[in-house]
Amino acid sequence: MATEFTTTESNLAAGSATPTLGHLPFTGLRADEGVAVWSPPEVSGDWAEQCIVGREFGNAAVDYIRASGDHALLSAVVRAIADRGTFTGVEAGFFSRVSISLAQSA
């Protein structure tokens, strides 16, 4: 699967300002025009391919949190996933990457 996402870190390295929450690859707009914090595109493929995409989303989330200081993002993502009631390789990869990043900063 050849899915590529530009992470916040690479955006910042390129000189762009801190991105807004709505620019993360796993967010979307709600009907009330607010940001849905966990609205990833459908990812086909097997569990491993989904995990790769999820890790890219996790990288983007960690980069965003470091750049913006918006630590509440993770709790919002957890709640949105729980409300959705589905857990795929995307979510597994996301939390894998976030937890590795947390362990590395400790």
- Counted by DSSP, the helix tally is 4
Largest sheet: spatial strand order: 1-2
Major pleated sheet: 2 strands, antiparallel
**Molecular shape:** globular
- Into how many domains do the coordinates divide? 1
The helix/strand series, from N terminus to C terminus, equals HEEHHH
In the predicted model, the low-confidence regions spanning at least 5 consecutive residues are: 1-15
Q: Estimate percent helicity.
A: 40-55%
Could you give the distance between the termini? Answer: 33 Å
Let me know the average pLDDT.
82
Rg from Cα: 13 Å
Instruction: Count the E strands.
Output: 2
What amount of the residues lies in strands? under 5%
Structural class: mainly alpha
